[in-house]
Fold this sequence. Notes:
Helix content: 10-25%
CATH class of the largest domain: Alpha Beta
Largest sheet: 6 strands, mixed
Strand content: 25-35%
Distance between the termini: 41 Å
Family: Belongs to the ABC transporter superfamily.
GO cellular component, one term: ATP-binding cassette (ABC) transporter complex, substrate-binding subunit-containing
Order of helices and strands: EEEHEEEHHHEHEHEEHHEEEEEEEEEEEE
Strand order of the largest sheet: 6-7-8-3-9-10
Protein name: ABC transporter ATP-binding protein
GO molecular function: ABC-type ferric iron transporter activity; ATP binding; ATP hydrolysis activity
Domain ABC transporter: 4-241
Shape: globular
CATH topology of the largest domain: Rossmann fold
Number of domains: 2
Structural class: alpha+beta
Amino acid sequence: MAKITLSKLxxxxxxxxxxxxxxxxxxxxxxxxxxxAYALLGPSGCGKSTLLNIISGLLVPSEGQILFDxxxxxxxxxxxxxxxQVFQFPVIYDTMTVYDNLxxxxxxRGVDAMRVDQRVxxxxxxxxxxxxxxxxxxxxxxxxxxxxxxxxxxxRDDVNVVMFDEPLTVIDPHLKWKLRSKLxxxxxxxxxxxxxxxxxxxxxxxxxxxxxxxxxxxxxQIGTPVELFDRPAHTFVGHFIGSPGMNVLPCTLDAGMxxxxxxxVELEGPVxxxxxxxxxxxxxxxxxxxxxxxxxxxxxxxxxxGRHLVVEAMAGDHKxxxxxxxxTPEKGAQVHLNFHPDQxxxxxxxxxxxxxxxxx
Length: 360
């Protein structure tokens, strides 16, 4: 396995890019530790697949370097990078048995038959497909086909990194949680460096130790699932992660106080000196409560999402969501909303500027 370093990486599909808008990937600097589980998370078109193709060697970046264990591999072809990749659609040989599919990457590299058999059976046991080893792959269910595709990526123990590109796209929703759990278990058992590309926050947050959130070719935050939820570094992260996402509300500053719709809102800490830009308040729905005083609002709807209720209220023209349990106000009710101060963030031009702990 390998530590992966991306240094000053940028990529444009134009031969002579002239401005930042010509780059599909803005400048990226990343270090992924040997043996870690990582996710690239973001909406379609944000640059995830471009970055994955650069790491795998299918694309040469316009600028910057890719290093595996501090060795520059920027211009090496895929077959010299020692990478295994699992794609959206299962890549298996239907006419072969499951055993032969799993054995193929090893036989192709001249591994002796005894080691091939040992490794195939180890991976089959991890994937819980030992009873399918003699079956032709053509007859497998879609989830088992994807298991075999994953197994082909994991069967080699000499790869630098295993990369997964939206591997659960074609899997039925009720089976996805099983494969997500299985993949997490596999990482813990084989201790390989893994990179998982997805637009699905649930997949990213349940699989990865560290998540790289991307938007419009830019890395907007890198962190653990808890860090991304607790302190989004950008309003996009707040919107994108969480269900419902973070409330992001325009505000102004008056004598160091954040003002929303004429009401002063207490922040997690003082406004930084010299702060400027377009200011917004960020507050998770989990930390919005209804009380006798606070921001005046009118309840627009109440949604039962199973584990809790989500109250949507309008404060002027702005929607605010609150996660609640128990009794909730009815549609049309006039209420007052309070924000937990220690969870109320201040953003400028989309970026977090307030600091936890009450110090600027």
